[in-house]
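TL;DR need structure tokens for one chain.
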Amino acid sequence: MNQEQAILRVRNLSTCFRTDRGDVTAVDRVSFDVFRGETLGIVGESGCGKTVTSKSIMRLLPEHLSYFKQDSEILFDGKNLAFAKEKELRQVRGNDIAMIFQEPMTALNPVFTVGWQLDEALKYHTKLDKAGRKKRALEMLKLVEMPNPERRLSEYPHQLSGGMRQRVMIAIALCCEPDVLIADEPTTALDVTIQAQILRLMEDLKKRVGTAIVLITHDLGVVAQVCDRVLVMYAGQVVETAPVRQLFHQPSHPYTKALLDSLPKPGVHQDRLTAIEGIVPSLFDLPSGCRFSDRCALCEDQCRNEPPQIQTLDSPDCSVRCHFPLQ
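>> reply
TL;DR here they are.
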């Protein structure tokens, strides 16, 4: 892809947390681009740094407990959001970069109506009057295919189903037509029917509005369905980046292959699914070499002793962090 088309560029993003046991780096020198009108998937097991990456971009982590290393860059519209002032961030959040959170019941305010929460976003980021904001809020609920949208404006989050609450979250995120939409596991708590509807809705909205989507998920089936490119994270690092079709048909990192091997195979009877032995290492006790070395079936001495660097493969869109890539 043409680098000049990148709407969001993340470079050397390192997010650290202050703890009683000392400082730890939860996201370690992560770099990627997001292009207009594409869906970038970020995948990996729980604890690999996906959500911390997304909240770092939005600057939603508690500042008294977290900080960025000095060379971290979150470049949007000529600004480095990593070190931007709060006043600048308020102009960007919701307006230019919006986020759909993993659990809408905790993200939505339980004491305000759906209409009030939509109105708040429009009041802050648009010049519409009260009647114009109400009309726009109703249009957004219709856009996300909310049943009885007029009635929902006066209802509270607890009166809605999980799928409806997620639609409200999407409506709030998209009401100002952001350039980038970050969706943090937006379908995790939903049944498969509602999940399919939400994914189709996000895809339709991307085509209509031209928004770039960063989709964070552990569901590789969802990735195969909606993503254009994929970023694989492990223990706070990016271990592979590739177009979605290539990643599924020819993975380069043993961790990516292990994730794909753990999926059920259509038409193939399996008594047991293949599992990746072990767990993601603690940030306080990372291996001295490759962070996946303790769980990798192809591990060599070099892997245990020397941290691999990210390297570009034959295609400029493909990179891997491995001493012995699979291709």
